[in-house]
Amino acid sequence: MSIDSCYEGLIEKLTWQGKVKEISEKLLTCKTNSERVLQVYDVISDFDAFPEPLEVSKSTDLSLYYRNRGNECFKNSQYFEAWQCYNLSLLHAPTSSDDYALALSNRSAVFFFLKKYKECIKDIKIVLTLNYPERLHEKLVKRQKSCEECLKLDLNDLKTLISERSLEIDEITKLESPRDSTYLCASNKLQVAYNSEMGRHVIAKEDIKVGEVLVEENPYFILLQKNEYLFSCSYCLSRDLNLIPCDNCCFTLFCSEECKTSAEKDYHSVECPLMGALIDLEFTKLELLALRTTIKAHNDHPDWDSLFKTIEDAESNLNSEHRGCILQDDKWIYDSKYYASIHTLATNIERRSNSDVFQKAVTAAVFLKFLSDQTQFLSNNNDGVRRCVADLLLLHIMTSATNMHGLSSNIENAEGNFVEELSLASAPYAFHSLLNHSCAPNVVRYSKLGSGKMTLFALRPIKKGTQIFDNYGSHHALQDLKARQKNLKFQYKFICVCEACVNDWPTYLTMKMSSSKTKVPVNLMLRKEQLLNPVIIDKLQKGDVDTALNIFKPLCELTEVLDPFAPNVELAECQETLKQCLVIFGGLVPYGYSKLVEWDVKTNKNCCITKFLRGTYFSS
After folding, report:
1. CA-to-CA distance for 304 and 487, rounded, in angstroms?
2. Radius of gyration of the chain (CA)
3. I need a surface site. Which of 7, 103, 124, 356 has the fewest CB within 10 A?
4. For the whole model, what pTM was predicted?
5. Is residue 274 included in any domain, yes or no?
């Protein structure tokens, strides 16, 4: 049963008993989020409708099952699939078992065939310290020596080239201007303002050129997408291949003991026993972001009273210029690492329907039930703590929908082109959440593969006094006015009045079909054709870093001079190519990572099917 079916089942029961109107009216009388959640909690309890949480524990049978699946993939030279299966085997293996060592050993073989020699050696060294069958030692030692021989090849020229490229990319993607004294992640060329129409927003204090870096922000935390569970560190998003499992749950991998310890401290000690249930019930990333925000908000403080004080102080500043700030050494600071900045993000509750609030309160109530029954999070279960947790769960389910940001890269397709986007993670960024939307944005976000840091680039020239506009997913080049307005109204609860909407700018395809009517000067059109010729475009689609580095600055200059003629095909193509360059700078994902293996949290309920597989060890 999913959380959606839980909600739908509850509605059916209320409808059958004729109580929908009564419950709806009661919900409307609630003044606080905690009242809303606790009222819905009681309704679910009355109907005995809370879902049964699925518990998943370490299992040698499951570890063997996934290892044998990996072995089959390995025999068929399906190395990326084998790698995932061995990670699943590692996740399910008790840490002191033979299965743990065998999963690592077999993973090292995958690394060898993928020519990941350093990673292969690292796994082998760990295995040789564990309880690994003596008769298989010789094979591992031989594999290690083969790796060491391969690593002796002269790679100095390649290392130098990579180092030079990295330096060039770092120069392009770093924030060069001084930082704001309050909004520490932002350039001092920016200013946070407020008015009743736009709410909190960001404006330029001086002229800004295309390609300038305006913000470098680290998130409050990172929430990994399920498709990345077997490839990335759950805590820091590192692409380190030698991932190590959580000691208790079967879903979380880390790049190091340091990340494992940090995750445990920040949130994972609470989430760990819930992981099976959270995945089984198919909670969305927005709901999971809310749960983790609530847990981390408490764990950031020494006790509940300290959190209550932070919330009280933050809410006392809601209508002041210090909204979301904390006072440090007589100085107001706004930073994502402090919970106050996340607590004060907009909920848009006044624009939400009663049914929307009810559905979100159902999710919050289920979370509250799980935290109460399955964890020690509410061990100090007094009324004040319970109300606080109920309040924060619903608060952040609402703020997540309109304030959280995704991290992504491009993944290689079968033709060798990097044109398909791959979602990696989501995260709360307090400053980026202050940016309003435009269907013709003047900035674009950039992140480096394996990192949660978000960087903001100017995509259009921005005049002093102009607002900084991000794009929430509805872009005039891709969607017509009607579709954009519908999407934005549904998810973000506003009617867009950006220049593209007010002037009904055409889509890219419409502009392409009527390109003869363009007002762009001929010399600029020719310059665009020269700069973005088919050879260049093909190289960029292939992820060529040198090409991206060579054209980035000339492309910024051309985009700058094309902007006064917006909207036009040439500007749209230049902007999209700039985005492609940034994706290349951030790092691309090879084709093999798209070959995801299927795995089900409920497999362990049928683990008896693997019993017949027990017998002779097979070690790759």
Report:
1. 39
2. 26
3. 356
4. 0.93
5. no
Q: Which domain holds residue 179?
A: 164-218+429-589
For residue 456, the cross-strand partners are 215, 445
Q: Report whether 467 contacts 202 (CB < 8 A).
A: yes
Provide the 3-class DSSP secondary structure of residue 331: strand
CA-based nearest residue to 398, from 447, 444, 442, 363: 363
Lookup: tokens for 393 = 């769960």
With beta carbons less than 8 A apart as the criterion, state whether 64 and 88 touch: no
- What is the three-class DSSP state of 458? strand
Per the CB < 8 A criterion, the answer to whether 282 and 4 are in contact is yes
In a domain, 141, yes or no: no
Q: What is the pLDDT of residues 356-399, one digit of tens each?
A: 999 999 999 999 999 999 999 998 778 999 999 999 999 999 99
pLDDT at 437 (0 to 100)? 96
Confidence of residue 63 (pLDDT cuts 50, 70, 90): very high
- Asked if 566 and 440 count as a contact pair (C-beta separation under 8 A), the reply is yes
Chain-centre distance for alpha carbon 333:
25
Mark out the alpha helices in 76-136 (DSSP H runs): 79-92, 98-113, 117-127
CATH number at residue 521: 2.170.270.10
In a domain, 545, yes or no: yes
Bridge-based pairing state of the strands 436-437 and 469-470: parallel
In tens, the pLDDT along 433-459 reads 999 999 999 999 999 999 999 999 999
3-state SS class at 236: coil
Residue 574 lies in a domain: yes
Among the residue ranges 161-165, 463-467, 594-598, the one predicted with the least confidence is 161-165
Q: How many Cα atoms sit within 13 Å of 598 on the Cβ side?
A: 2
Angle of CA points 51, 57, 59, to nearest 5° = 140
End-to-end CA distance of the chain: 38
Average pLDDT value over all residues in the chain: 93
Q: How far apart are CA 40 and CA 49, in angstroms?
A: 11
Under 8 Å between Cβ of 14 and 20: yes
